[in-house]
């Protein structure tokens, strides 16, 4: 190389910028990968390696009616003549065309182990497996020897290969394709053959068709592994634009076996495996991210799939199944990207464009085949006409041949006057056997001539008439596809959308407890066992000496907990958002869950699952005020809370209840006074209002509770010193709102003051909590039913200065004895 840069001008070396050379070289490499290896041709739906495998097997005679041959032999043939990229790539492509879990219609019939859906389970070595073309593959290669497609030189120009296959069915859409190129990828799902054929015929018959016209014919993909397709939104987007996402879900049923439930999976999403699912489930169970599963077993055999997920006896199968859909490959997404090679260029196709490309290909195939057959028919007719003329002047022909010295002279004599045969006709006459000279021979030639004239007329008509051509395309498409049509495997179901927490959480009964100092916890309802009234109870919470349980309500994991503060605001939490702790645990500070301000405490708590339109929230305050507001006003929540009631100075919220028109309210005071009146006397107002007077109180008296009257329920009154009684509301006659009420319980220094009034039915229980955190669960029916002047019976034994701090109502359940 010259040392002086100026001397480069006299050499063959060209100066090129490194960046330009890198860009050019990388572009060439990219296009080589895209066109020659990674992306399918939109006409036959095949990548070069798949096309070469099919053509090589066809060329070598490995057809459905012949014995299987070793895959290693096929791989060697393909690598030696057409695809010099290594035997592993060829065998992997061959194996995929055998797998019925990869292709909806496998193109190769295999013997041996060709792998499983699990990526870690590949096919056996090519020396152990055998293959031959599947019957449907012959439809891909039909008429390939009639000049229907172009042939190009192979990699070493020693042979030729087809640039595309005739493909008598739309393989790109029927079997789909996946591939990763340089800077682009394709992901085309498989479709039901019958549906695609109908769509192709529709487009042929309706040249002005649009994508939306096809959506009723092709509802969506049809995957080899079946499963369920959730909704059609992603499908519609993919068919309109070429890109979209389809959500797939396994087919699972819940079965009851020996007092336990099990989930049985029969179909799984495309490109997943039972092995992957089992491994993921075991990992989730080990990490305690999913509960209720005792074992998984795969009982699949052959084409029958049965994957069993065994559940624990107390597991909720629907909740477990929803968690499995969310956390495992039992539900997945298939990202559609319909990228294929069209006219040598990668293009993203929508459904209509993909069908149109295929139709144009078939028109070209039928046109080229008709031209080939027309040419061959004319050539044969020319020969037949010559043979008939020969028979007409047979004696003269024989004489001319006998007088000729050799074949060349005989041919020239036949080509000369008076015969005027063409060279082709003369050669056939010289090759004709004596048997063709009989009367039968002439009849056969005349029949053949007539048939050739008909064939030529038909072929000319096909080539001259586009409608006739399209009819041939449609007829052959139906003929080629009908033997292989099958029912749809993937079924459509309504898309439930993304799973909410409610779908993934079992709605377990809870008791929500809040202490006076602002600690909250959710305790499973089963943590409390009913005891005989008058007992000491069990430890309900570890609290400080000056603390105690101030609010206790029954709820559930999926309920909404409305927490009303002393400043008249309402905060909303879900049951599953609360700390779920043991009965004796202290709880979590509420300020960690809701933004309580300094000096703001909890006044009332209400649990609900919905906000009915015809239901109101009724607010009762310590100073005897009452307010009624439609419940939907409180449905929405904000991080910093909503205004629930406009409290007067010095007043505080005591009770929040639900009510409907026509109901009656009963309000109870600390001194044992009770008032009953119609809730219709309270006008419904908005959230930020103060309400009206409900009860006139004596000096130093205050409201301690209240609720809506229910004729099927009785009232349990509980005093501060642990006494209580059950009384029917019928003992209290109705009054006008704002009255002073009547005595509901005779109070003494021994019994203390009234701290709670709860409506109960006989099959419910009360959880009573003391200021020291002791709890007792008492069946309502075990509490004596008494009149207005009765002083009640002992419900809970207290010690020292201990008093009752809160009372809640829960459902009656049969529970095991808990530890004290």
TrEMBL record:
GO BP: any one term: DNA topological change
Keyword Isomerase in annotation: yes
GO cellular component: cytoplasm; DNA topoisomerase type II (double strand cut, ATP-hydrolyzing) complex
Active-site residues (renumbered): 128 (o-(5'-phospho-dna)-tyrosine intermediate)
UniProt keyword annotations, A-Z: DNA-binding, Isomerase, Topoisomerase
Source species, domain of life: Bacteria
EC number: 5.6.2.2
Ranges for domain Topo IIA-type catalytic: 39-504
Subunit structure: Heterotetramer composed of ParC and ParE.
Entry-linked NCBIfam families: gyrA, PRK05560.1, PRK05561.1
Family assignment from sequence similarity: Belongs to the type II topoisomerase GyrA/ParC subunit family.
Name of the molecule in the record: DNA topoisomerase (ATP-hydrolyzing)
Gene name, Swiss-Prot/TrEMBL: gyrA
């Amino acid at each position: 190389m010259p040392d002086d840069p100026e001397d480069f001008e006299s050499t063959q070396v060209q100066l090129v910028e490194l960046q330009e050379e890198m860009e050019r070289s990388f572009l060439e490499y990219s296009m080589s990968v895209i066109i020659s290896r990674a992306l399918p041709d939109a006409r036959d739906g095949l990548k070069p390696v798949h096309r070469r495998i099919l053509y090589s097997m066809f060329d070598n005679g490995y057809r459905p009616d012949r014995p299987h041959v070793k895959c290693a032999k096929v791989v060697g043939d393909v690598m030696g003549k057409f695809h010099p990229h290594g035997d592993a790539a060829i065998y992997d492509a061959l194996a995929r065309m055998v797998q019925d879990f990869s292709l909806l219609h496998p193109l190769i019939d295999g013997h041996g182990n060709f792998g499983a859906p699990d990526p870690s389970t590949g096919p056996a070595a090519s020396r152990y497996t055998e293959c031959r073309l599947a019957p449907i593959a012959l439809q891909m290669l039909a008429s390939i020897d009639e000049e229907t497609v172009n042939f190009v030189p192979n990699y070493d120009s020693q042979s030729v290969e087809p640039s595309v296959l005739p493909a008598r069915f739309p393989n790109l859409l029927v079997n789909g394709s996946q591939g990763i190129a340089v800077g682009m990828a394709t992901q085309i799902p498989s479709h039901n053959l019958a549906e695609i054929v109908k769509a192709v015929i529709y487009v042929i018959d309706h040249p002005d068709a649009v994508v939306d016209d096809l959506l009723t014919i092709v509802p969506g993909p049809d995957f080899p592994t079946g499963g369920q397709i959730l909704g059609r939104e992603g499908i519609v987007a993919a068919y309109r634009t070429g890109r979209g996402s389809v959500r797939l879900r396994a087919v699972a049923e819940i079965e009851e076996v020996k007092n336990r439930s099990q989930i049985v999976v029969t179909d799984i999403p495309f490109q997943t495996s039972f092995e992957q699912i089992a491994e993921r489930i075991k990992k989730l169970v080990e990490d305690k991210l999913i509960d209720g599963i005792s074992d998984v077993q795969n009982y699949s055999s052959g084409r029958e799939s049965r994957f069993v997920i065994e559940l624990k006896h107390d597991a909720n199968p629907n909740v477990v199944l929803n968690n499995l859909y969310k956390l495992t490959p039992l539900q997945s997404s298939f990202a559609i990207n319909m990228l294929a090679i069209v006219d040598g260029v990668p293009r993203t196709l929508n459904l209509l464009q993909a069908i149109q490309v295929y139709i144009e290909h078939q028109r070209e195939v039928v046109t080229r085949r008709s031209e080939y057959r027309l040419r061959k028919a004319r050539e044969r007719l020319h020969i037949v006409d010559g043979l008939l003329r020969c028979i007409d002047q047979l004696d003269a022909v024989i004489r001319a041949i006998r007088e000729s010295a050799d074949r060349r002279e005989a041919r020239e004599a036949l080509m000369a006057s008076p015969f005027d045969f063409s060279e082709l006709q003369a050669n056939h006459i010289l090759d004709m056997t004596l048997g063709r000279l009989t009367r039968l021979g002439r009849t056969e030639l005349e029949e053949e001539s007539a048939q050739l004239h008909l064939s030529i007329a038909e072929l000319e008509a096909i080539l001259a008439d586009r409608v006739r051509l399209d009819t041939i395309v449609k007829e052959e498409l139906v003929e080629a596809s009908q033997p292989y049509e099958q029912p749809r495997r993937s079924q459509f179901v309504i898309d439930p959308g993304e799973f909410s927490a409610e779908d993934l959480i079992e709605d377990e009964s809870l008791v929500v407890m809040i202490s006076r100092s602002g600690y909250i916890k959710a305790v499973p309802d089963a943590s409390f066992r009913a005891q005989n009234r008058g007992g000491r109870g069990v430890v309900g919470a570890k609290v400080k000496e000056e603390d105690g349980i101030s609010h206790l309500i029954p709820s559930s994991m999926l309920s909404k907990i409305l927490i009303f503060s002393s400043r008249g605001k309402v905060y909303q939490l879900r049951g599953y958002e609360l700390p779920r702790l043991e009965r004796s645990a202290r709880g979590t500070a509420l300020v960690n869950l809701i933004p309580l301000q300094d000096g703001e405490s909890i006044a009332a708590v209400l649990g609900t699952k919905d906000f009915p339109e015809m239901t109101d929230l009724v607010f009762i305050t310590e100073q005897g005020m009452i307010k009624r507001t439609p419940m939907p006003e409180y449905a929405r929540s904000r991080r910093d809370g909503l205004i629930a009631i406009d409290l007067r100075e010095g007043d505080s919220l005591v009770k929040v209840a639900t009510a409907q028109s026509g109901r009656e309210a009963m309000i109870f005071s600390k001194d044992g006074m009770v008032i009953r009146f119609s809730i219709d006397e309270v006008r419904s107002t908005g959230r930020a209002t103060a309400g009206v007077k409900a009860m006139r109180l004596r000096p130093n008296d205050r409201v301690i509770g209240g609720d809506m009257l229910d004729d099927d329920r009785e009232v349990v009154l509980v005093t501060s010193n642990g006494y209580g009684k059950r009384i029917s509301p019928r003992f209290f006659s109705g009054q006008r709102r704002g009255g002073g009420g009547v005595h509901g319980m005779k109070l003494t220094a021994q019994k203390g003051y009234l701290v709670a009034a709860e409506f109960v039915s006989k099959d419910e229980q009360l959880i009573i909590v003391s200021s020291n955190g002791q709890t007792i669960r008492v069946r309502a029916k075990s509490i004596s039913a008494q009149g207005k002047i009765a002083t009640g019976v002992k419900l809970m034994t207290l010690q020292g200065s201990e008093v009752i701090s809160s009372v809640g109502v829960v459902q009656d359940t049969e529970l095991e004895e808990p530890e004290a």
